[in-house]
Amino acid sequence: MIVLTGNTLTIDEIYRVCVQFEKIEISAQSLAAVQKSRDAVERIVAEERVVYGITTGFGKFSDMRIENGDVEELQLNLIRSHACGMGEPFPIVVSRAMMLLRLNALIKGVSGVRQILVQTLAQLINAQVHPVIPQQGSLGASGDLAPLSHLALVLIGEGFVHDDHGHATPTATVLQSLNISPIILQAKEGLALINGTQAMTAMGVINYIEAEKIAFDSEWIAAMTMEGLEGITDVFYPEIHEARGYPQQIAVAQRMMTLLQDSKLTTTQGEKRVQDAYSLRCIPQVHGASWQALDYVKEKLEIEINAATDNPLIFQDGDYIVSGGNFHGQPIALAMDFLKIAVAEFANISERRTERLVNPQLNDLPPFLSPSPGLQSGAMIMQYAAAALVSENKTLAHPASVDSIPSSANQEDHVSMGTIGARHASMIIQNVRRVLAIECICALQAVEFRGTDKLATFTKAKFDSLRSIVPSIKKDRVFSIDIENLATALNPLIIKKND
C-alpha cells in the first residue's frame, strides 16, 4: 500500500502503482489539508469575492464575473469544452500515472477541491478504471488542459475508459457496474482537475523508467558485443575515467569491467590490435554522458511529481489566494527534449557496433553473421533496419520546447510544448529499444561463433536466457519476429492483467 501525502511520491512508487498495480490511500493529514483549502473556497463563494477560476471565467474570460447559481455549470462547461484531445490514446500505464499524479497534487491542500473528489479519484485508481485520454491537443501551458479534461470526464461519469481488452467503453457503464457515483463538480474543482502538467509529467516518468532500463541494457549488450569482436578492455580501467572526473562515466566503466571481468573473449591493448573503434573504446564516455542527462531528467521529475501546478493556489487558510503560472510546463519540456537526445545516442552508438559485428571488412566473423554467406543474407538487413530507426530518431529529437504559439486571444502567449516533447521521447525510446535488440541478436550470434564457453559469467547467463527468445541463426528467417520478441523482453512496462 502506497500512502499519498502530496509531497513524498517517488518514481519507484509510481512504478509500483502504475505497472504493478499496488493499492494507494490518502494520508489523514492530507485529507485534513484538502478540507481546509475547500473551506476557503466555500467562504469565497459565500462572500461573492472576485477570484480567478472560482467566481470568474477562464483564460481571456478571467474578467467576467460568474453568478453563484452558475458555478456548477461553469465547472461542467469547462471540462466538456476543454476535452478536445485527438489521436491515439495514451497507453494505459500513462493514463494511470496521470491519475496518480493529479491526485497527488490535489491532496497538497492548496487547490480547493472537496475530499469526496480526491477520494473518488483514489477509488478509481484502486479499481483500475483508466480513462481513454487522446495524446494530441496539449500546448503544455495553462496545464495539459485537453488531456486532463478527458481524465476529468471520467470523474463526472462521462467520456470513455479502457475495458479489459483495451477497448474504449462508456464511463457511465463502468462506474455503474462498480457502484461508484459520479462527481458533481463544485466551485474551483473543474479548473483544479485540468490546470496542471500531469500529462507531460506522467509520460515523462514512464519515459524515464524505460530510458533507465535502456541505459543499463545497453551496457551488457555492449559487453557482449565487445566479446563478439574481441574488444580491448584496457579502455575501462578506472584511472582513465578518474582522470576526466565525470561520475557517470566512471560508473559505466566500472560496470563494464564487472560485466567482462572473467571473459576469455576480450583482449588487451596490443594483443590483437592497439585500438578499437570509438563505438567500443568510448562506451563509458558516450553512455556516461547520456547518464548525466538521465540524472538531470530524474531530478526534475522528482520535483514535478510532488508539485502544485494548478491555478489559483490557496494559502494562509484562504486569506491569500494568488493566480500564478505553476501550470507552465517549461521545466519538464526542457527535460524531455534533453531525454530525447540522450536516449537517441544509445541507439546511435549501438547501430555502429552492429555495423562492426556484421561488416566482414571490419571483423573476422562470417560476413553478416550468415550461416551460409551468399546463399543466406544473415543479419545484413537487420543493420539496415537499425540505421532506419536511428535516422528517424534524428527527426524526433528536434526540441519541441523551442517552439511556442499564442493561445486564448494572446492571454496565454508563451507555451512549453512539453507534452509533445514527452510524446516524441516515448517514440524515440521504442525505436532505441529495437536498435538495441538488433545489436543484441547480432552479438548473440557473434559470440556463438567465438565459443560461448569463453563468455564472461554475466554474459553467459544472458546468452543462455536469451536463446529461448531468439534462437541461433541456422538459416534465414523473418527476423522482424526476433526483433520484436526481444524488444518486448527488454521492456520494463509489461503490465499484468487485471485481477
TrEMBL record:
<dbReference type="InterPro" id="IPR022313">
    <property type="entry name" value="Phe/His_NH3-lyase_AS"/>
</dbReference>
<dbReference type="Pfam" id="PF00221">
    <property type="entry name" value="Lyase_aromatic"/>
</dbReference>
<keyword id="KW-0456">Lyase</keyword>
<dbReference type="InterPro" id="IPR001106">
    <property type="entry name" value="Aromatic_Lyase"/>
</dbReference>
<protein>
    <recommendedName>
        <fullName>Histidine ammonia-lyase</fullName>
        <ecNumber>4.3.1.3</ecNumber>
    </recommendedName>
</protein>
<comment type="pathway">
    <text>Amino-acid degradation; L-histidine degradation into L-glutamate; N-formimidoyl-L-glutamate from L-histidine: step 1/3.</text>
</comment>
<dbReference type="InterPro" id="IPR008948">
    <property type="entry name" value="L-Aspartase-like"/>
</dbReference>
<keyword id="KW-0963">Cytoplasm</keyword>
<dbReference type="InterPro" id="IPR024083">
    <property type="entry name" value="Fumarase/histidase_N"/>
</dbReference>
<feature type="cross-link" description="5-imidazolinone (Ala-Gly)">
    <location>
        <begin position="141"/>
        <end position="143"/>
    </location>
</feature>
<keyword id="KW-0369">Histidine metabolism</keyword>
<dbReference type="GO" id="GO:0019556">
    <property type="term" value="P:L-histidine catabolic process to glutamate and formamide"/>
</dbReference>
<dbReference type="InterPro" id="IPR005921">
    <property type="entry name" value="HutH"/>
</dbReference>
<dbReference type="GO" id="GO:0019557">
    <property type="term" value="P:L-histidine catabolic process to glutamate and formate"/>
</dbReference>
<dbReference type="GO" id="GO:0004397">
    <property type="term" value="F:histidine ammonia-lyase activity"/>
</dbReference>
<dbReference type="GO" id="GO:0005737">
    <property type="term" value="C:cytoplasm"/>
</dbReference>
<feature type="modified residue" description="2,3-didehydroalanine (Ser)">
    <location>
        <position position="142"/>
    </location>
</feature>
<comment type="similarity">
    <text>Belongs to the PAL/histidase family.</text>
</comment>
